[in-house]
Design goal:
Largest sheet: 5 strands, parallel
Radius of gyration: 33 Å
Helix content: 40-55%
Shape: flat
Distance between the termini: 94 Å
Number of strands: 12
């Protein structure tokens, strides 16, 4: 094996050798053929997907002095001119690579601006590759704008970054932007197999897929793992070696765990976790394996099995599991695992065991709830069905006439199919329970229950509409539920009290009765006090 590490030895030297970025290579290839290159480029994407490599290939292409261009050669052919050879060897003085993470000040940018005025020494273009461009300071970015907009005629600037959100729009608009994708499983595993065959590493395609699956779409990470495991096993790598080296579990383990969790077999779940952790498996990876299987079952339930990068046997196993459970149940288990905090390499894996047991209990609760929904409730000889199971056309709301005297007690009940139970009844009972349950739930600035005490709710068509007494209370509540965790707590409380999944809607209007109150009520101090839970006492 060469003294170079694999990812450096197998770095692409032409456009056709770049893996998995066809949309970028095609555009740049056409621009070279048509001699329509830009003065500034911006490459963005995850780590290890070829941004810096593509920048170097482009630098060679614009400085190549032969036809056809050396960088347009087909796969398997590597014949380069003198400028291209010097770039391959890293000795080209007209190619300047700068790490913006360390050369990030305004003085560094001024130095680049001054040196860019000099003509190229060997090639036809002077190319600046600025890696980790998001590391530039604010003043440095501002100083860079003029150079990006109107660089010298023989200068090309290529920015590469993994954090496009940190790059100002003023810089992005001055560059041709290319978004690099994560490399998919098949392309990466095929490339790893090609490397292993060339380097005489005995490894199967399935083992290469296992490496690719645990590289987060980064080819550089995958090549590093391949080199480490081949060195450890003296170039003879078995499938089991990959799982042992990475502390992984097979997908079958994740499928079995998911099946036992969904069927509430908590004892067997604990046995599997204990066996795997004792064998060196990372608890965090076990959690991710189960989440991955849950994701697969949800995709299958939605008819998207073709989007899963899994083997046919794995998809068949997940399909069998998905037949017995609803998307709502699968999603509920997923939420528990996503919100659980599992530390890597925790031993014993208590956090993981607690999370899995909670999932088992959740499935048991879901089953009991489904049974209760199917059993009708008998009240005074009338069968009342659950709101979720009853059809909309069968719902009949009763409007009771107010009792004036004892004679009215015998007055017949008037049924109205168009009107619902008055909101006042909800305020007096269920809504007060909602507010009480949220009294100690504090958002960023306010207690949620205090904000909701004066609200008038109205339930209609699966939605609960909240009418606030003032714009201040309404705005404070909207600010609090902008936090998804706080909003979920409100929805959970409403679901618990009303036993129904209701969509939360905040009325754009406010209760007009507030206009009749003392003008002092509208002052900021009083409004702030109301938002903190204070109540206005009426004078008799």
């Amino acid at each position: 094996m060469s003294e170079k590490v694999l990812y450096r030895k197998w770095r692409p030297l032409t456009f056709n050798e770049v893996v998995g970025q066809e949309h970028v290579t095609k555009t740049l290839t056409n621009s070279i053929k048509l001699n329509q290159t830009s003065h500034a480029y911006l490459f963005t994407g995850p780590r290890g997907v070829g941004k810096t490599t593509m920048a170097r290939v482009l630098a060679k292409a614009v400085n190549c002095n032969v036809l056809p261009n050396c960088c347009l050669q087909p796969l398997g052919k590597r014949e380069f001119c003198e400028p291209c050879v010097s770039i391959n060897e890293g000795s080209m003085i007209d190619l300047i690579e700068i790490d913006a993470a360390s050369n990030r000040s305004i003085d560094d940018i001024r130095d680049i601006k001054e040196k860019s005025l000099f003509a190229p020494n060997i090639g036809t273009k002077k190319v600046y590759i600025i890696d980790e461009a998001h590391g530039l300071t604010g003043p440095a970015q501002q100083a860079f704008l003029k150079l990006l907009e109107e660089p010298p005629e023989n200068v090309i600037i290529i920015l590469a970054t993994t954090e496009i959100s940190s790059i100002p729009q003023t810089i992005i608009s001055r560059c041709q932007r290319f978004d690099f994708n994560r490399i998919n499983l098949n392309q990466m595993s095929s490339h790893l197999k090609l490397i292993s065959d060339s380097e005489q590493i005995n490894i199967s395609l399935d083992a290469c897929k296992a490496i690719a699956l645990n590289s987060s779409g980064s080819l550089r990470d995958a090549e590093n793992i391949l080199q480490q495991i081949s060195t450890l096993k003296n170039k003879s790598v078995e499938d089991e070696d990959i799982f042992e080296f990475l502390g992984l579990t097979r997908i079958n383990t994740g499928i079995e765990l998911l099946n036992k969790i969904l069927n509430k077999e908590s004892g067997r779940v604990l046995e599997i976790v204990n066996e795997e952790s004792g064998s060196g498996a990372d608890p965090l990876h076990l959690k991710n394996q189960v989440l991955k299987c849950l994701r697969g079952t949800i995709y299958i339930k939605n008819g998207l099995a073709n989007l899963l990068e899994e083997s046919e046997s794995t998809i068949n196993s997940l399909t069998e599991i998905s037949k017995n459970f609803s998307v709502e149940q699968l999603n509920s288990v997923s939420k528990v695992l996503v919100n659980s905090k599992i530390e890597s390499n925790e031993f014993p894996p208590i956090s993981l065991e607690v999370a899995f047991i909670e999932c088992c209990e959740l499935m048991g609760a879901n089953k009991l709830e489904n049974i209760n929904k199917e059993v009708p409730i008998v009240n005074n000889g009338n069968i009342i069905k659950d709101q979720k199971t009853a059809k909309p056309a069968e719902k009949k709301n009763i409007n009771y006439e107010p009792a004036v005297n004892s004679v009215n007690k015998e007055k017949p009940i008037i049924q109205n199919d168009e009107k619902k139970i008055p909101a006042n009844n909800l305020i007096n009972s269920e809504w007060k329970s909602v507010c009480k349950s949220l009294n100690r739930v504090k958002g960023k600035d306010y207690f949620i229950g205090a904000l909701l005490h004066s609200v008038t709710p109205n339930i209609e068509s699966g939605k609960i509409n909240l009418l606030f007494k003032s714009n201040t209370l309404k705005q404070n509540f909207l600010n609090e539920i902008s936090n998804l965790d706080t909003k979920q707590k409100v929805l959970d409380s409403i679901k618990t009290i009303y036993n129904e999944n209701l969509e939360l809607v905040v009325d754009e209007l406010v209760d007009s009765s507030i206009k009749e109150q003392n003008p002092l009520v509208k002052t900021p101090i009083v409004q702030h006090a109301i938002s903190m839970g204070a109540k206005i006492k009426k004078n008799d």
